[in-house]
Amino acid sequence: MRDGAQQEGLNLSVQDKLHVARHLDDLGVGFIEGGWPGSNPKDTEFFALAAKELELRTATLAAFGATRRAGLRAADDPLVAALRESGAPVVTLVAKSHDRHVELALRTTLEENLAMVRDTVEHLRAEGQRVFVDCEHFFDGYVANRAYALEVVRTAAEAGADVVVLCDTNGGMLPHQVEEVVADTLSVGARLGIHAHNDTGCAVANSMAAVRAGATHLQGCLNGYGERTGNADLVTSVANLELKLGMQVLPEGALAEATRIAHAVSEITNYPPSARQPYTGVSSFAHKAGLHASAIRVDPDLYQHIDPALVGNDMRLLVSEMAGRATIELKGRELGYDVGDDAERLGRITERVKAMEQQGYTFEAADASFELLLAEEMEGARPSYFDVESWRVLAESSRGTEATVKLRAAGQRLAVIGEGNGPVNALDHALRQAIEQLYPDVARFHLIDFRVRILDQGHGTDAVTRVLIETSDGKDAWVTVGVGPNMIEASWEALVDALTYGLRRHGVPVGTA
Amino acid sequence: MRDGAQQEGLNLSVQDKLHVARHLDDLGVGFIEGGWPGSNPKDTEFFALAAKELELRTATLAAFGATRRAGLRAADDPLVAALRESGAPVVTLVAKSHDRHVELALRTTLEENLAMVRDTVEHLRAEGQRVFVDCEHFFDGYVANRAYALEVVRTAAEAGADVVVLCDTNGGMLPHQVEEVVADTLSVGARLGIHAHNDTGCAVANSMAAVRAGATHLQGCLNGYGERTGNADLVTSVANLELKLGMQVLPEGALAEATRIAHAVSEITNYPPSARQPYTGVSSFAHKAGLHASAIRVDPDLYQHIDPALVGNDMRLLVSEMAGRATIELKGRELGYDVGDDAERLGRITERVKAMEQQGYTFEAADASFELLLAEEMEGARPSYFDVESWRVLAESSRGTEATVKLRAAGQRLAVIGEGNGPVNALDHALRQAIEQLYPDVARFHLIDFRVRILDQGHGTDAVTRVLIETSDGKDAWVTVGVGPNMIEASWEALVDALTYGLRRHGVPVGTA
User: Fold this and answer.
1) One biological process GO term for this chain (chains A, B) (predicted)?
2) Which CATH number does the domain housing residue B414 bear?
3) I need a labelling partner for B163 at 20 to 30 A (CA). Which of A12, A99, B145, B390 fits?
4) What is the predicted ipTM?
């Protein structure tokens, strides 16, 4: 989460980071690098919150930081103290391993840099933390001064580092070079890791080359996020290791969650997922079948490099969207609906989901809206606590925004005004005020996030807008979705779903009021 | 252009293809595969038009097609005739080389498939065309039945094919496998080529592995277009060959056109270029400088794998949360401002940027707003083409959204109404209509994307909203930012910046109107 967040324009709040960490844990990764405590208040807060709130099943949290400053004792360096006090069981220490960088960026001697590595690792080990050492600019440093680069690796290992990670920080390497350098560096006797960037389009291949040469630790980012061209894509790397090189690196069955998780995280980062992303992209198993349709039907494996279900993706033959019957059935079961016992109904729901996803809805990120859709299909009518007559929003410069909502509920006609810091907020206030007397639970609901995305990039006026709204009742949170040419209309749809879902979740019977 | 156009959603007209061909020729590629004449009217028309209109300086046009049908003489096959009559000096013939595909998709015998390859190559050679043979599913075929796969290569070479291209059609290979198979296949004695897809994220690395093993011909697509996960990206492959492996494959100086050409073609395909694309992406040489800014100033090559000018790209410094004086100074220089010669002013700008980023602004993603801030500090006043008096937005259910904007410009008072599909869109329309007569350039501007984020300085009501707006004039695009408790107010700020920056960029002097 630290290096991925270096991507231009990517900004994660503390809550976003907690969500991403849970997704990474679901994927079953070994370690999650949460940030650099002490370097900025947000990362410090993340580790404090994580220690209280984050329950990880598979992953271990790692804090990132640098070796001690030149001329200071590790125990006295406040940045080292922040790592010690982060509560993270693992610390990833970045160390310079390229002689020119030691002189130019650290402005210290080669000897002092080695001492900085040794002292910091020993200090943190003595304090009970596991340490990984990231050798920054290692490959360029190896070319410039092999002996010194290897000396940094040796120093880190001898001081007690669990793994020494070789970083292609500038990303300029090709796989055959990585393979040679890793094989040579193994002579030091340390356990090695690889950290690759995609500047030559080879981040994943470089990671594979390192593992084949003997590295046992691989660093990557979900969706290939990262500075410049990005880091090695985590899912592609892991899927290659498991499916191509036959190494099991994730818990049994976890890889099948990869597509869902990659897409869910892209909703959090607000970076649309690439359709061409290996393994997880919506186009990655799509075939313009034409000529081969019948052969594909006889033996699909002749036309795909793996069974897409292994990574939770689907083969697509036509222009249809990806939701298949099996997915819907599974998802329904997860939500407590036995959708599968009626084939006709299952077919109808699948068709409806496909049609809506084609319009721009995304149920992957909006479980609550999906559950309302399921409830509608299973129970014959959409759960409804009120009938909307109309709404209106007025916003003026140097004033707030005002919304008027008119609706009917429990035989009453209600017309209420709400104020807010924007159209969605004002509508939310008006709507909740209108029904609060009838449904007191809504007083506990609050809108904690909303995201707006234009789907048809490049067409300005005619574009479709998708709004995702996250609502909390102080205990749980749920996400709803609205889609339409008008942003406020789409927001309203998501808002109505948000309150409806919340009331249903609280067990409020429809029509009680 | 044929395999790239297999990308889901990508559609090129005949005129588009002529434009793309000229761009590829500017890049200096050896061969351009124009399409499959005879398979559809558009491709047939393209070759007819190309023969008349397309003057290529470096490239040679190739027509793609299949070996003759089973049981027919090559001379009598109408699809082979279309290749012969296309006027293309080169024909790329696709041939089956995987035994199961011969049986299942072609429904013929292994012997007849060899005869189809031999006859078709010999026939086209006799008619004076050069022939490349693309061995489809070669790598999977090699694994399934090595002897047969090699026999297809041998048959093609002996029949007179210039190059036999080994295709990883399903894209499942890793570089070490490609290297082994290519090295072994060279024993046949043919000149070999490589055609790689990106399903394991290794299309470029697989191409490099093949070249290192002895292949002398590489097929790729601009911007990595192609079916599923795409083909090997042409620019990344070629830049790696030239800059990493020291092989000159393009005419002198052509590589420096790569970024321009990659972006120009993405305008034609209407697929926004990826910011993370190796070599040509706008983020590919962007640095969140912070800590390292001073070292970057001394020796930029320590922080980049190549000089970006070699591929026609630029180093960019991102003004991020960690912005220090050195970053601001460097960034200013990049934008043409000598900020560094006045230490007091530099300090003032740095403090202001830090304070604004703390409020929620992000200049990293909004270069245009940053440039306006710099201009304000350097020139004593913010560039201003109009004075806003007030604005208002009204949105109602089942209707559109309407905005009113009142402003003064060039001594006139203007009050204008605009409609749109949401508040931002309506304000944008109203604002542009208001000033269009005074500043005709704004008619060419259009809003191409906007992103809204709630920043988590609080919950719901007190939250701060950040709006990023991307605007284009059809040639360039720029991003502006607005921040505030009111979403519409923040959008308005970003909109005003967007038009102001655009007018300034177009050289319109302030106060001309």
Assistant:
1) L-leucine biosynthetic process
2) 3.30.160.270
3) B145
4) 0.76
